[in-house]
Amino acid sequence: MELVYPGFYKRLSKTSHLHVEDSCVGCGLCAQNCPVGAIELKNGKPTWIQKNCVMCLSCLHRCQKFAIQYEDKTRNHGQYLHPDEI
């Protein structure tokens, strides 16, 4: 994707807008479920590797504590899991 739309991809891939709230328990599910391996746990908290992250937000939606947020836009939106994954 980056080769086809380099400028567009860089604008979308804003991992700096992701943040972890204090409710994070460091379980590591976000890193385990990341389809592209773009999350590392550092001091028990997720950190994103921007060059790998495709902004699928799987980490946000699979967090059991809903501790991962994208700016202030996701707090009131809840989480989504495909019915086949429940």
What features would you describe in this structure?
By secondary structure, the chain is of the alpha+beta class. The protein has a single domain, classed as 2-Layer Sandwich (Alpha-Beta Plaits), CATH 3.30.70. Helix content is 20%, strand content 16%. It has 3 helices and 4 strands. The strands form 2 sheets. The chain has a two-stranded antiparallel ribbon with strand order 1-4. A two-stranded antiparallel sheet has the order 2-3. Strand 2 and strand 3 form a beta hairpin. The N and C termini lie far apart (29 Å). The relative contact order is 0.21.
Q: What count of helical segments does DSSP give?
A: 3
Q: pLDDT average, as an integer?
A: 83
Shape descriptor reads globular
Low-confidence stretches: none
Give the CA-CA distance, first to last residue: 29 Å
CATH architecture descriptor = 2-Layer Sandwich
The SS-based structural class is alpha+beta
How much of the sequence is in beta strands? 15-25%
**Strand arrangement, major sheet:** 1-4
CATH topology: Alpha-Beta Plaits
Number of strands: 4
What sequence of helices (H) and strands (E) makes up the elements? HEHEEHE
Question: Helix proportion of residues, in percent?
Answer: 10-25%
**Which CATH first-tier class would you pick?**
Alpha Beta
Compute the number of structural domains: 1
> What is Rg?
13 Å
